[in-house]
Amino acid sequence: MSIEVHPLQPFLPEGARLLMLGSFPPPRARWSMDFFYPNYINDMWRVMGVVFYGDRLHFVDEPHHSFRLNLIESFLKDKGIALYDTATAVRRLKDNASDKFLHITNPTDIAALAEKLPKLQAIVTTGQKATDTLLENLRQHCGVIPPPAVGGSVPFILKDKQLQFFRMPSTSRAYPLALEKKAERYACMFRELGMI
């Protein structure tokens, strides 16, 4: 099986306080836009619409089965949210978007990524694979960090900087939780960070 290299550069807006990490993008055939969480049936941008605007369709371009990328990028810059993934290269054990069938060949250097974000206060993972990969990645810098419960957080220190690690539910529809319940958990995180 061939190695697939991450097709996107990290999205690191100036002044970002929060770094959101998924696992790896789905196969290109499932993309509806050239950005993170591009699968039209992934609910990340619907969750963000509910949390910040009370409207699940705020970022959705329904006629084109896509998302409003310009609106998303402006929103992320305004809120100080950076995006990337916990892997820079993977092998897909099956030709689908499931994290269960991703073999990570190159994890992202999270410490190096965090250094590019001087105002960083928190890192959030958006699913189990991302959580497991992040914890393994940070072990060399921070020792063992206990995984928080889904929707919870733990403090940790990365290169002398105090940060908070939030573990959020996956926004994949395969994750068995209603969109509104996912939005509630994300809203709690953003409130704790003073972002809403």
Rounded to the nearest angstrom, the radius of gyration is: 16 Å
Contiguous helical run count: 5
Percent range for helical residues?
25-40%
CATH class: Alpha Beta
CATH fold naming? Uracil-DNA Glycosylase, subunit E
CATH superfamily: Uracil-DNA glycosylase-like domain
- In N-to-C order, the SSE pattern is EEHEEHEEEHEHEEH
Q: How far is it from the N-terminal to the C-terminal residue, by CA?
A: 44 Å
β-sheet strand percentage:
15-25%
Which secondary structure elements does this structure contain, and how are they paired or packed?
Blueprint: E1 4-5, E2 18-22, H1 44-53, E3 60-61, E4 66-67, H2 69-79, E5 81-85, E6 87-92, E7 102-107, H3 110-115, E8 122-126, H4 128-142, E9 153-158, E10 161-168, H5 179-192
Parallel strand pairs: 2-5, 2-8, 8-10
Antiparallel strand pairs: 1-6, 3-4, 6-7, 9-10
Helix pairs in contact: 1-5
Task: Characterize the structure shown.
With 196 residues, the protein is α/β, with parallel strands linked by helices. It has 5 helices and 10 strands, in the order ββαββαβββαβαββα. 34% of the residues are buried. It has a single domain, classed as Uracil-DNA Glycosylase, subunit E (3-Layer(aba) Sandwich), CATH 3.40.470.10. Helix 1 crosses helix 5.
Could you list some keywords that capture this structure?
196 residues, alpha/beta, 5 helices, three-stranded antiparallel sheet, globular, five-stranded mixed sheet, Uracil-DNA Glycosylase, subunit E, 10 strands
